[in-house]
Structures are given as C-alpha cells and as structure tokens.
Design the sequence.
C-alpha cells in the first residue's frame, strides 16, 4: 500500500460533515484487509486444478498459525494437511519470489 493510498483511505474514513467516524473507520479497515491478499473461506476457496486439488496456497488458522496447504474439492471438501480440530479462516495465493 502506498502513502497516497493510506492518506486517501484515512480521508475517506473521517466524514467531513462530522458523521459517524466509526462507519468510516470500519470501511477503511475492511479496505486495508483486502489489500493484504487474505481471502476469508466464507468468501471463497481456491479453485480446483481439474484433478480435484487446488494449487498450494498459504492458509491461516483460527489461532493465527500460517502454513502452506492444498484444498481438496471432493465429497469431503477439506484441506489436505489441517488437523481435524484446526479451523482455517483465511487463505491466499503464494506470492511470486522477489526479483533480483
């Protein structure tokens, strides 16, 4: 996120007419969360590659743990490496490696 994007988000978060700042703050926080690349599992799951499995992606558990996994689109619809008691809340594509 650039400085200009942060400034614009902050300006849009505080209504000039003295309206409810909390509404603007929540909208700003939601916008900033979308910039991170994390997708809520409520909003969607990784696409299948045609073999029932997704690409390897980063997953975030309810406890904040982050690791890579694949999603299996099957009658079980499950992550392949997540323990039964763990809950995946978000996922994102693995970013490209840095340019040299």
Sequence:
């Amino acid at each position: 996120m650039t400085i200009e994007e942060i400034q614009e988000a902050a300006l849009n978060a505080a209504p000039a007419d003295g309206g409810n700042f909390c509404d603007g703050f929540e909208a700003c926080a939601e916008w900033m969360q979308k910039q991170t690349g994390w997708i809520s599992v409520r909003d969607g799951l990784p696409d299948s590659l045609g073999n029932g499995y997704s690409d390897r992606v980063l997953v975030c558990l309810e406890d904040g743990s982050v690791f890579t996994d694949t999603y299996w689109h099957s009658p079980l619809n499950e992550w392949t490496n997540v323990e039964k008691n763990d809950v995946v809340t978000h996922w994102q594509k693995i970013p490209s490696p840095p340019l040299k």
Residues 39-93 form one domain. The chain is about 25% helix and 20% strand. Strands lie at 39-40, 57-61, 66-69, 71-72, 78-79, 88-93. The chain has two domains: 3-35, 39-93.
